[in-house]
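OP here, attaching both records as promised.
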Amino acid sequence: MPSGPQIRAARALLGLSAKDLARLSGVGWATIQRYEASDAVPNGQHDKLNMIAHALEDAGIEFIGDPVSSPGVRLKRPKA
């Protein structure tokens, strides 16, 4: 499960607004904002957090590191 910083970084890397991510994930804009405000893995409904993670992964993000102690994201390399 991604942390708040990972969600923020993934959105920035993709150039998405919170509203864009809400549309792509099916999760409300306010929920995304609340999750991004957390410095750790957000408390809440895990299904919504998974929906956000899957939308970002489908857009080309790979979550790396531990979501709390060493959170990171990167763009996936296209398959050759």
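Record two, same layout:
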Amino acid sequence: MPTFCAPDGTQLAYRVIGEGDPVVCVPGGPADSAYLGDLGGLAAHRRLILLDLRGTGRSAVPEDTSSYRCDRLVGDVEALRDHLGLSGMDLLGHSAGANIATQYAARHPERTGKLVLVGPGTRAVGVGITGEMRREVALLRKDEPWFPAAFAALQAITEGTGSDWEAVAPFFWGRWDATARERHAAARPGNQDAVALFGAEGAFDPQGTRTALAACASPVLLLTGEFDVNSPPASAAEFAGVFPDATLVVQPGAGHCPWIDDAPRFVATTTDFLGG
């Protein structure tokens, strides 16, 4: 697995899958990139450069844990671009990784090609996700056998009286089957310091990021799942309004990992946007 040196000297790892023009992929979590797989077969059309965020996967744990902050991780993406010898790059960010990719585009618009934000986290631009938004999406699943217990847990979370996120796991997947259970377990972040410090004070400057993005010429695809309680379509639609050139796609029947719920549809949508 190839590595490169981050600005603070931390050794970071990445995977390369596929052929063709590169797309640098930033996972959510914060977690290593293994859960992204080959993004449902996207690697058959583009060369995927999949970054293990610092302190995850095969990337080293940094000496300075404050470097887990989202805005600091932008420097790791820029160091990867420089390491790869790219003058510019297409960028894909999933979930929390969308916050990193968005801040990268705001900071380095001249080096950002096309931007794909999948199940996007919205904290970088200050888009709020309300409990009502999450419950509205969850109610689409009311005929599922697991719904009563999962919805009760979600309601408690959104009302501030509960914190059992594992109980709401079925809402993150288009089908809560054996494959989804296995994938859900594999995608759990292993570095709790990285998770806790990702959004530490100073990690986000929503107004500054919005101002910078208003002048960003990069075409942007925001793709979220119809059933995604983590990144509801309403929040993704509001996020899309931040960019001058944005396309919003809501993938039917999909949760937070749409390349798993319907790989052909996901790949068709992303390749149509990215080309290749």
